[in-house]
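U., I forgot to send this yesterday:
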Amino acid sequence: MLKDATMPIFSPDRHACAPSYVKLTKQPIAGGTYRPLANDEDSNACAPSALSGHHGSKLYTQKSAIHAISDNTSIFISGAGTLPCLPEMASSGSVSKAEIDNNEQIASSELQPHQPAEQPLNQVVSVCKRAAHTTAKTLSTAGHTAVKATKVTGHAIHTAATAVKNAWHTFINFKAVQLIIKFFRKAYGPWKKRMRFSYAFYAIVFTLLTSAEVIFLQWGMYSEPTYDKGDEVDQTTKILNSVAGQVTKFVSQMWLEQKSLFLVNFVGLGLIYLALIFVTNRFWIATLLFGTAITAFGVANSIKIQLRNEPIIPADFTFISGGDAGNIASFIPDNSQQFVENAVTVVIWIIAICLLLFLLDRRKCFIYCSWRKPFASAKNTVGTFSRALAAVVSVVILASYATNLGTGGSWSNMWAAKQGYTPTLFDAAEDARNNGPATTFLSLTKAPTMDKPEGYSKQKMQAISKKYSKLANSINKSRTQQLTDSTAIMILSETFADPTRLPDITFDEDPIPNIRNIMGTTTSGTMLSPGYGGGTANIEYQALTGLSLANFSDSMIVPYQQLVPTQSNPYSFNQIWTQKYGESGSEAVHPYYQSMYLRNTNYKKFGFSHLYSLDSATPVEHTEKIGESPYVSDSSTYQDVLDLIKNQKNPEFLQVVTMQNHMPYSNYYEAEDVLQSSVTDDTPDDEHSAINVFSTGLKYTDQATLDFLSQLNQINKPITVIFYGDHLPGIYLKEEQNPDDSFLLHETDYFIWSNDASPSANVKLDDSEAAFSSSNYFMSSAAEHMNAKISPYLALLTKLHEEIPAISRVISNRGGIGLGTATYLQSDGTVTDSTSMSKTQKQLLADYKLVQYDQTSGKNYLKESDFMSVD
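Result:
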């Protein structure tokens, strides 16, 4: 360490070949660099030893000004022989780059004659030195460039910052701004000391908002009743039957009937609310999320009830996860637009109020915690632990409550039952009206597929396989055709049903004259549908698999969304063709979006090689529409099917789901083309208009279907068509309220037809076999129509159809019988129940349930046998 700011500096006395030293005056150290001293006068020739001595004198230096770049470079050269001491070297003790290069050349030329062996080595050294110098110069240049760029950038930033700073100072110096600043400075003190809202206030808000949401959800389940003009209804009855009266009854039954269903819904929503509070640890943020989400849920639930007579269930959220939220929104009818807009306004108010209260409330955290210093003090430790524990416990309790609510004997189910909860999940709409949509939704979060049938085991399934293999062999003895020798087209015609079947509705002309004529000449009948206003995927599932919703548990509402995605290898009838022809054995056409009801996923599991839709990799080619309708016409869909048939290499199974007649029913068609119906005077105008538009769509379907079958007759390939309507549209509001008409709302039409090239052309099964059916029987009926050999599974369905013509999950009072999860029809269309069935019918039904359980919930023992194989 230096003890003084200056130090003595010595310089050597320069003379020929000998250093001498002269004491120089003290000079300050700071602000300079050191370099070797040399006297220009002593730059005479000297020996190498002198150079060495001169080099060593660098310790004794004088102070000089700082230079950014040194002009000279010190060098010491050693080598054999005597080198001339150049004047430049002697004068300064350092040389420039040009001097170094020149000296190297001289040294090299003089050494070459005397030391030829060292020539290659010196050349290598020379090249390396030049390369090193070039690299150093390049790096130096780059460094200078970078430094210069940094200086320019820094200067620009400094200039910009200065400008901003000056502008800011100019702004805040305005008198008006100064007044505002002074105001906030004065207000900051009181603002910092603003009150923390009490937990009692939180509890009040929690109770009021949860109760309001329960009432709002329940309000969306009801509709205003209509009365015939001749009906004499007193004002009190009208009030009680109104939406307000029904909601009031739902709440007041806690005291009038000792049924606390309001409390059950309150607890369900309250657990959701609490989970949001403890997870976010922000009361007002949780309130914002809860209020917004449940209000949106209530709006969507009300619209779905209006259109499809179904509440929202957990499986419906697969539409959103599949990216179909926008497509679902297109189904909102015009008369619900104002309702949606009002709901949006309410949501905006909820968001605004919650954000304002969040700012006003000094208590930011619902439970105190410190994530940065969780263990700095006892308070931090307890708070952090409590916050984490509360979040976990609230989520666990909510999950346990929801997953057990629909399971009999569980803790939440037993508690709800004590409050009056009686589930009827097989009719989700009725369950939501009686028990509340929140309770219905939570009850369906965990949906058991089927209850295990009595006697289920591997041995039992092997016995069933042998039993129906014998039956199949017996049936096949009289059959001469193979299913796979023909192309089978299964057409689900969206909402196709004879509109003249319902009473009090007549038309000036028959909407479906061609299909009515076709049904009179080929196998046809009435189909019992589990759906009304919706449920397309359920009817389609039954037709493709042969399984019935009536056998599933009450909470299995939509197998396409709740069951099939979880199965590894589900069976469907198209596999009869794929087993013989491979991937080219089956294809599907749906002129809408492929992810609706997860068809893209489910069809792959079923073994379809392609699904042609609007958004598939290879989309449908024909997308023409009628008038202002948003949906692809049936004639366009049929043309896509014809193209597939013309290009096919082998017979195949074609699955077709149309879209033309899908809800809603706005003024799509030209006024002069719309069919006019006659209805009773008390039918609402909206209902009357919807019936006319819907029936007009059926007229277009009727003509397109006739043209399609005519073109199939021109194809020299055996083709069989299975055509059916899935359900009626949910537009018959008056009929919904009449118990006598409720069963008619579950009846649609079907026919099985073969073209002229088919051996089964012009075949019509007897009405005793075909008059009534359900979609799970269609493939077995088609095999009988085609006189085709069948598998043991189809043999079971054939025999079951003979004994129990139709099976469905329908609620009806027809015949004075109150039905539960399943409806069974006899051959004359009358309803029967399982208790009054014959021994044969009961045994067939028991075997059917065992087969269905094995395929969907059991061990799939039948897969190891030939139960599904057609010889």
